[in-house]
Specification:
- The chain is α+β, with helices and mostly antiparallel strands.
- Among the domains are: 128 residues, no CATH class; 229 residues, Rossmann fold (3-Layer(aba) Sandwich), CATH 3.40.50.300; 96 residues.
- It is 40% helix and 20% strand.
- The chain has 19 helices and 31 strands.
- The strands form ten sheets. Strands 22-23-26-21-27 form a five-stranded parallel β-sheet. Strands 3-4-2-5 form a four-stranded antiparallel β-sheet, with helices on both faces. Strands 28-31-30-29 form a four-stranded antiparallel β-sheet.
- It is globular and about 110 Å long.
């Protein structure tokens, strides 16, 4: 490590604390490779100063509370000098890129101490750099005192002016760094004092100072081990589905699962985000702090429960300066927006994600090659080889690519702004489409899908979707869809980074991030309307009368959990290798609204030699009943009228005449587009439909609104 560079030491959070809170409890802090520490045992109040060390001939670098930072030789000298029967000086080396147990105190005090030690190291190196700059300036022929001056004399030589111009910005940079360090140190001092005073002495409720009480409550939550976060203007916590207060246990062919009050079906171990209500907040505030209030009868302060008004005021803030923002939950490592790897469990300040998993994941390569990516692809192919994709060559067709895309997308969905829906279809039940959807979830989350039953009522669908987004699920699967699938609310969630709507069972609205991987399954699954432009489709076909009787070589529900660490790392290696290669541009068309997904997931799949998953969009569009209906109207209309404009009533009349003569194509198209309750065509409804699709192009024809004739609108369909 270069001692002339300012040390910006990252302080990792750790939950590996001892149960005791005594000052001699040791905790973990990050390590460096250029200094030694003297730890004072048996006397926590003892402070070995730098001056004391110098008396023994040591050159002490600087002092932090309870520690002196020395060279190895000097550390041995001081340790021998000060060690006696009452106290023992222990020399501990900081080893580069490792963690040694070096600090003491309670959990909160240890965290503060870690921050303090980092800042003192930074301050020391910054001061040393400042001194080195002044020395270099002096050696160059210009006295260092000129660095403290902003103006120079006119008679100063050009050489001295150039020297000043070179060293002055470097010197000022150290001043700016010192100001930042000082500011952070003052923040730590205030934080340390607040935590110690509040935890040990309790908080005294005083009239007219409710703002102080609420501020104290917020800081207490920040330092508590409860795990409180803010999300969508609410305070939240993480909870397993089986512990949710609003649950019902169901037992089906997929085992025990949890049915929530909003109709969503989850695995019991699924982690969800639960809003903290008033009563739970009162409970935890009373638990983590001693609240006191003056009692006139006893002329003393008495201990009370946390006052309800403090919890109410805290909840009403909607934004909290000291509470970390929770963007979502992940159950596997992921790749951040900047391409870095998130593999450390717990809350990640950079991304706002909380990573929790019982699976042990191998270390992900920082700079994998394309050969590494191809080797990893083989592992993923092994997982999917039992599914009868309807492509001719296994691993090369679009259906395999869609399945692979779903796996990769689910692992990095929190790091991209939008992603298409992945659908799994089969001509007959029992072919394995639900299993394939579960494979995506088992790899990404370690549990089965959160299942969303189809909902025809759009208003209810919006409320349920909002609840799903608020609870932070990573994957949601619309299961066993029968009719052509369409949803205006889902269309918004697929393309927009945030979704706003009413919360189920409550008044008012909320805003939640939409970074969920959406899946859908169904027999001969079809997408209708706008959703058809936001979906990919994987088709599997066993070509058997009883596909449910087929057997797989491996039981994926057992194999994936056992080998999940290797599988996840393999999937992320494919993406990381593509990023490390510079994300070479692929010869593909833009996929509007999903550019980030296309530039990473889609391009990486093509880069390793697989088909473009977007090839499945052609099949989706051809099966879209909305497109088919409009295309039939355009073709039959143009066949009769050519490029000439017509009134709506004239079109209906001509269609009826043509029908009597045996040409029923136009009348059938009009009846499908705008039927009335008498078996005919509704002119008003047809006019609205034409206005809705004005300028639309289908099957090589375009609808255009033309000039009015006798106050009636006219329309034409032209060939393009």
């Amino acid at each position: 490590m270069n001692n002339n560079t300012l040390l910006d030491l990252e302080i990792p959070e750790t939950d590996e604390f001892d149960n005791k809170d005594s000052v001699d409890t040791l905790h973990e802090i990050p390590t460096i490779n250029f200094c030694y520490l003297l730890q004072v045992d048996g006397d926590p109040e003892f402070r070995l100063t730098a001056n004391s060390a110098r008396k023994d001939g040591a050159t002490a670098e600087f002092t932090a509370a309870g520690w002196v930072y020395l060279s190895k030789e000097d550390a041995d000298k001081v340790a021998k000098r000060w060690s006696n029967g009452k106290r023992k000086i222990q020399v501990v080396r900081w080893i580069d890129l490792t963690l040694d147990k070096l600090w003491y105190g309670s959990k909160d005090e240890s965290k503060i101490a870690k921050k303090q030690i980092s800042l003192e190291l930074s301050e020391h190196l910054n001061n040393k750099k400042k001194q080195d700059i002044e020395l270099e300036c002096y050696i160059s022929g210009l006295h260092w005192s000129w660095l403290y001056k902003d103006s120079l004399p006119e008679d100063m030589s050009e050489k001295d002016k150039k020297t000043h111009a070179h060293y002055k910005p470097l010197w000022e940079k150290t001043i700016e760094n010192q100001e930042k360090i000082t500011l952070k140190q003052s923040d730590i001092s205030m934080e340390e004092e607040d935590v110690k005073n509040t935890n040990k002495n309790g908080f005294i409720i005083e009239p007219g100072k409710i703002h102080d009480a609420v501020n104290a409550a917020e800081k207490l939550l920040k330092h508590s081990s409860i795990g409180v976060y803010q999300r969508s203007n609410t305070l939240v916590r993480l909870i397993e589905a089986k512990h949710s207060p609003k649950k019902k246990i169901i037992d089906d062919e997929k085992g025990n699962r949890i049915l929530s009050n909003n109709g969503l079906i989850r695995s019991p171990e699924s982690l969800t985000i639960e809003e903290i209500d008033l009563y739970f907040l009162l409970e935890i505030l009373t638990k983590i702090c001693i609240w006191k209030k003056y009692d006139a009868r006893s002329n003393d302060y008495k201990i009370i429960d946390c006052p309800e008004k403090i919890a109410k005021h805290l909840l009403s803030r909607k934004q909290w300066e000291n509470i970390p923002v929770l963007r979502g939950i992940i159950q596997s490592p992921t790749i951040r927006k900047d391409g870095s790897i998130l593999q450390k469990p717990g809350y990640d300040e950079t991304s706002g994600l909380y990573f929790q998993s019982s699976t042990k994941f191998p270390k992900i390569l920082e700079k994998p090659s394309k050969e590494d990516a191809l080797s990893s692809l083989t592992i993923l192919k092994e997982i999917l080889k039992g599914f009868p994709f309807s492509d001719e060559i296994y691993g090369k067709g679009k259906n395999f690519s869609v399945a692979l895309s779903a796996i990769l997308t689910a692992l990095i969905r929190k790091s991209i702004s939008s992603a298409p829906l992945h659908g799994f279809s089969a001509p007959k039940m029992g072919s394995g489409k639900s299993l394939l959807a579960d494979v995506v979830s088992l790899i990404s989350t370690g549990s089965r899908n959160c299942v969303v039953p189809p909902e025809k009522n759009e208003a209810e669908e919006k409320k349920r979707l909002m609840a799903l987004l608020m609870e932070g699920d990573s994957i949601a699967c619309y299961d066993n869809i029968v009719e052509p699938f369409s949803s205006a609310a889902l269309c918004c969630a697929l393309t927009q980074p945030y979704y706003k709507d009413r919360i189920l069972g409550k008044t008012g609205s909320a805003t939640a991030p939409t970074d969920i991987t959406f899946l859908a399954t169904g027999n001969n699954l079809r997408f209708a309307g706008d959703l058809s432009t936001r979906a990919l489709l994987c088709v599997i076909d066993a070509n058997e009368e009883r596909p449910e009787e087929r057997s797989f070589d491996i039981n994926l529900y057992e194999h994936i959990p056992k080998n999940r660490g290797e599988i996840v790392v393999a999937a992320l290696t494919v993406l990381k290798a593509y990023i490390h290669a510079g994300k070479p541009k692929q010869k593909i068309k833009t996929y509007g609204r999903f550019e980030e997904w296309s530039d990473l997931v889609r391009s990486a799949i093509i880069w390793v030699g697989c088909a473009d998953p977007c090839e499945s969009r052609k099949e989706i569009e051809n099966d879209d009943p909305e497109r088919v209906k409009i295309g039939n109207l355009f073709v039959s209309w143009h066949t009769i009228f050519g490029d000439y404009s017509q009134k709506v009533k004239d079109v209906i009349k001509k269609a009826e005449i043509e029908s009597k003569e045996g040409n029923e194509d136009l009348l059938d198209a009009l009846l499908e587009m705008a039927p009335d309750n008498k078996g005919g065509v509704n002119p008003r409804s047809l006019g609205k439909q034409l206005a809705k699709h004005n300028k639309r192009i289908e099957c090589g024809y375009q609808l255009e609104k033309m000039a009015k004739i006798q106050h009636a609108e006219t329309w034409r369909i032209k060939k393009i």
